[in-house]
């Protein structure tokens, strides 16, 4: 027997390989610990919302929050009917409701990780026997089950994130619905304003024609000049020229309402009326802190913030080991008769532990979740501040437009009185045509400004309702409204 000596360099190489392996394992363990340590370095920023204790432009009167159907307070049955139809048929509201369905489905998808996955299987095979003699049959039936232990709460965090997103989708639907209702009310009031301005313009044309006839009569008897007649004819032509743009405005507002209703313009006919015939609803904000619970856009931002907070929890838990359980069981036999038999039973149980070591996506995912949280935090802060700004703007707009209407009504009254006196004196020959023309133009302008002021007042009231969150918090129904109607695919006739 020969004694083979091991060369010294091979001993050193083996020793170095052992050291290298230990170093790699130590480095891997250190990397795993480092990755796990990354999950602990997170301090949640404070919300930092400055909520005032009072409103700058509000009086000391008690709050009058909007109710669920605040638009009824204007006293227009047609407006109420249009808004109810828009809530049913508006395309943007329908799309927002569809997003709620998607968010609910995502909750179910994420929630599936909290329960075991169970699958059944069955198999039957037929193949030639040994040496091509006969056939061999094999039947199998089994059940596989697997389950990941949510030891660190990662799966529960993903479910919470999906639930918060689903709630955000419901608040978003309320934001969309409130915007649609407000747009419809504002457009309806703009259409009524245009109708009233059109009636005033036509009345002014009639008045201008009457004065022109009077001037023509004085010209026939030699008490007026051709210049007087030309000046009045110019005023008459100017009044006639104001009619087409107003008629166009009416049609444009009708088509805008048709879009909000989800109908083609040819299917929409608006009766309208006079703004002066509408009621002026009472609405006053309560405490600013109460406003944050009424505004669906603030609640939407809050829900998004909660969703990304849960995403951070899930991203941190991804650094830690995951534990899994699996089980397989079933029967295998060459004949169906003995398939479900104790001797044919086979099963397997297994447990596993997985620890990420060098996965550079984990720190990136965590930083991404943190960045999204901070983004939503700033969005939440802006939404709260914007809600306070909207209410303050609406408060001063309601107060100042009411004052403007009151002053403009007095201006119309004075202008009408002056015009009536000037027209009577013109027939008697006591004043010249210049005096009548000036009084006429003053009245025309005052009347048109009064209608514009009334429109601004009612639109300011709508802005107040919108700034206070509409009637969402007073509706007594879950966020998201009624479910989507059944989708029916239209039948296409065969050609």
From TrEMBL:
Localization (cell) = Cell membrane
Spell out the molecular function terms from Gene Ontology: efflux transmembrane transporter activity
SUPFAM superfamilies per the UniProt record, alphabetical: Outer membrane efflux proteins (OEP) (SSF56954)
Q: Which InterPro entries match?
A: MdtP/NodT-like, OMP_efflux
Q: What is its main location?
A: membrane
Which Gene Ontology terms of cellular component type are present? Answer: plasma membrane
**This protein's superkingdom?**
Bacteria
Q: How does it sit in the membrane?
A: Lipid-anchor
Give the UniProt keywords, A-Z. Lipoprotein, Membrane, Palmitate, Transmembrane, Transmembrane beta strand
Family according to the record: Belongs to the outer membrane factor (OMF) (TC 1.B.17) family.
Q: What is this protein called?
A: Efflux transporter outer membrane subunit
Q: What is the species of this protein?
A: Hansschlegelia zhihuaiae
Organismal lineage: Bacteria, Pseudomonadati, Pseudomonadota, Alphaproteobacteria, Hyphomicrobiales
């Amino acid at each position: 027997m020969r004694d083979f000596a091991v060369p010294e360099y091979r001993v050193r190489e083996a020793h170095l390989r052992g050291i290298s392996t230990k170093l790699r394992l130590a480095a891997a363990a250190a990397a795993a610990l480092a990755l796990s340590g990354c999950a602990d370095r997170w301090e949640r920023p404070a919300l930092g919302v400055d909520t005032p204790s009072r409103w700058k432009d509000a009086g000391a009167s008690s709050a009058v929050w909007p109710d669920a159907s605040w638009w009824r307070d204007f006293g227009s049955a047609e407006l109420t009917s249009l808004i109810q139809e828009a809530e049913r048929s508006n395309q943007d509201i329908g799309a927002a409701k569809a997003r709620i369905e998607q968010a609910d489905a995502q909750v179910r998808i994420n929630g599936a990780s909290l329960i075991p996955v169970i699958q059944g299987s069955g198999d039957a095979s037929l193949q030639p026997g040994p040496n091509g003699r006969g056939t061999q049959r094999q039947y199998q039936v089994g059940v596989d089950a697997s389950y990941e232990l949510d030891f660190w709460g990662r799966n529960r965090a993903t479910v919470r994130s999906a639930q918060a997103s689903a709630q955000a989708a419901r608040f978003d639907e309320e934001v969309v619905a409130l915007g649609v209702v407000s747009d419809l009310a504002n457009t309806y009031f703009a259409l009524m304003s245009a109708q009233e301005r059109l009636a005033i313009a036509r009345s002014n044309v009639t008045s201008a024609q009457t004065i022109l006839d009077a001037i023509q009569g004085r010209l026939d008897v030699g008490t007026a000049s051709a210049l007087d007649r030309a000046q009045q004819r110019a005023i008459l032509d100017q009044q006639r020229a104001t009619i087409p743009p107003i008629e166009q405005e009416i049609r444009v507002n009708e088509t805008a309402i048709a879009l909000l209703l989800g109908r083609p313009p040819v299917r929409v006919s608006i009766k309208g009326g006079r703004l002066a015939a509408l009621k002026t609803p009472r609405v006053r904000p309560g405490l600013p802190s109460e406003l944050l619970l009424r505004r669906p856009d603030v609640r939407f931002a809050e829900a998004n913030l909660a969703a990304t907070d849960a995403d951070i929890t899930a991203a941190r838990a991804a650094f830690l080991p995951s534990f899994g359980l699996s089980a397989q069981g079933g029967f295998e036999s060459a004949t169906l008769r003995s398939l479900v038999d104790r001797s044919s039973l086979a099963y397997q149980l297994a447990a596993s532990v997985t620890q990420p070591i060098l996965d550079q996506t984990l720190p990136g995912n965590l930083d991404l979740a943190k960045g999204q949280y901070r983004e939503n935090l700033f969005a939440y802060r802006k939404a709260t501040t914007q809600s306070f700004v909207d209410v303050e703007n609406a408060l001063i707009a309601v107060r100042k437009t009411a004052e403007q209407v009151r002053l403009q009504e007095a201006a119309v009254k004075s202008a009408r009185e002056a015009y009536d006196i000037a027209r009577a004196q013109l027939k008697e020959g006591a004043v010249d045509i210049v005096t009548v023309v000036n009084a006429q133009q003053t009245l025309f302008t005052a009347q048109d400004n009064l209608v514009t002021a009334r429109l601004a007042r009612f639109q300011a009231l709508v802005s107040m309702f919108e700034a206070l969150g509409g009637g969402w918090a007073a509706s007594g129904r879950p966020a998201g409204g009624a479910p989507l109607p059944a989708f029916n695919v239209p039948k296409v006739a065969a050609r």
